[in-house]
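Continued from yesterday's entry.
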Amino acid sequence: MTKKRIIIGGIVLVLLMATVYGWYQYNRTVQTLSNVDADFSVNATALINEFVSNEDSANKKYLNRILSVKGMIKNYFNGSALQFASFFTRATNLTQVELESLKKIVEAELKNKKK
């Protein structure tokens, strides 16, 4: 009888521990990166060029690091100019100077397309 109690008690203990662990994992929160400083601040074009020129070196430098990448995300908008414009006018905190710079780029491209 005591052997049976030990086995049942062990099973109950394992189930209780599994339940507590599951509850902990279910209710944990994701850490925010708002208070974390980037290890590297790099331009998107420079980052791509670094990977193209020497992928192994770039992996050693950037892998498992926090990067602050500045530049245009070309493929995110699936080629849709409307999604692109909507994103940069509503969803970002671009300054007026940055928006004017973006406007100049778009106007230059429009001028090139008309030729």
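--- second protein ---
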Amino acid sequence: MKFTISNDIKLAEIPRGLFRDLTSNFTLPNPKYIDAVKFKRQTCGIDRELKFYATNPDGSLSLPRGAGSEIYKIAREKGKIEVIDKRHSLPDINVQFKGKLRPYQQQAVDPLCQC
């Protein structure tokens, strides 16, 4: 299974059981739909569920990068993983703070700067 990290998490060559588990975990009831039903309003055009994944034409699955560590743990239990890191890294830049902190802000920052 390929676990690609970029602007999202892309899983390729996924076992069927894992595909089903992940799509189910990243599908949630739509609160707007629930409210519309509850208050007897029109539900036309409101999805019943919110899907926080995309199925790609090549059969892979794209998921939110913020859930990467959880997805990795779940995927690792299901088989061997090849991690491909496609994140962009930029050179460090030197930035100096030229603002003025308020006294309560300075009080919070001083202990942090003593390290």
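The mean pLDDT is 94. The chain has four helices and seven strands. Will compare against the first tomorrow.
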